[in-house]
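Justification of computing resources. Each target in the renewal requires a structure prediction run like the one illustrated here; the chain below, 334 residues long, is used simply to show the kind of job we budget for.
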Amino acid sequence: MVSAYELSKLENIKRNKALLVDLGLDKPLLEPLEKVVQKAPPQKKRKAPEPSEIDEKPPAKKQQRTDFVPEKGLRRSSRNAGKVVDYKGEIIKEAPIPVAYSSGVKTTENEGPMGREDGPRLHDPKKYGHIPGIEVGTWWETRMGCSKDAVHAPPVGGISGGPQGAYSIALSGGYEDDVDLGYAFTYTGSGTSSVQLRTAPQSSDQTFENNFNRMLLRSTQNKKPVRVIRGYKLKSKYAPSEGYRYDGLYTVEKAWMEKGLNPKGYLVCKFAFKRVPEQPPLQIRAGFSPDDENEGNCDGTPNDTQLKDEDSANDMDEGESDPENLDNVDAESN
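Resulting structure tokens:
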């Protein structure tokens, strides 16, 4: 017999899918699959030369030049003669691809370029739209890499935003009745439990007075684009098989409240996102099974990854001096 919880979950999913379809999906006819990159064969170890093969003759001694008289004072390069050298200028180098990948020890199915995992930030994450130099499809092994490349600054939190709405969000885990159709998805807001019991089931209604929910609500009004990353823990065929991937810009099309999947029927804030047209197509996860979608806890609580996002959100909420004034909100965690 199907439980009331399962019936409610299926009804919510059906309703959310219909809502996303009504938004109109800019979906290509053919969606690319992740390609498995074959592991490079190990190189044969080179044999050490036999003792008999080694030239036993001692190296010739270098003769010191006697016809050269060094100039007095500091040594100077002829290349820099007449140039003003800025020794205090900042030298920024791009981080190389990790040796584990470049050597073939580890392989990946992500087709996009690999982002940085270390080094200073080159751009300000507190901006709307694309980050210069970061292509759609770029991926990182960790959330810290997303932060270093300024795509999604908080290393844990799910929402980053400012006075005019959200800069970026991370999809990783989520609620059971959230629907991800790739080119549109639903997202459940923040603020489900008390500060003392952050991992407990929802204990009150969510509201748009919550700073993070208010940012997304503001995004529905001004339609500023939001950067979206998907993580490997997301139960969706559009999630990467590993790491975190930048999937481009979305707009928040709608915000509403509905009864959540919790024993006491507390309300949750919901948001519908739609992908901005004319972006590279999304990849479909290799080996994905439809049975993997919409899995989660069966007691009405969010998944572990969502709880971590809520945890970070609550941590940042505690530091707000004026939660009623959105202009003072900075949801980003550096």
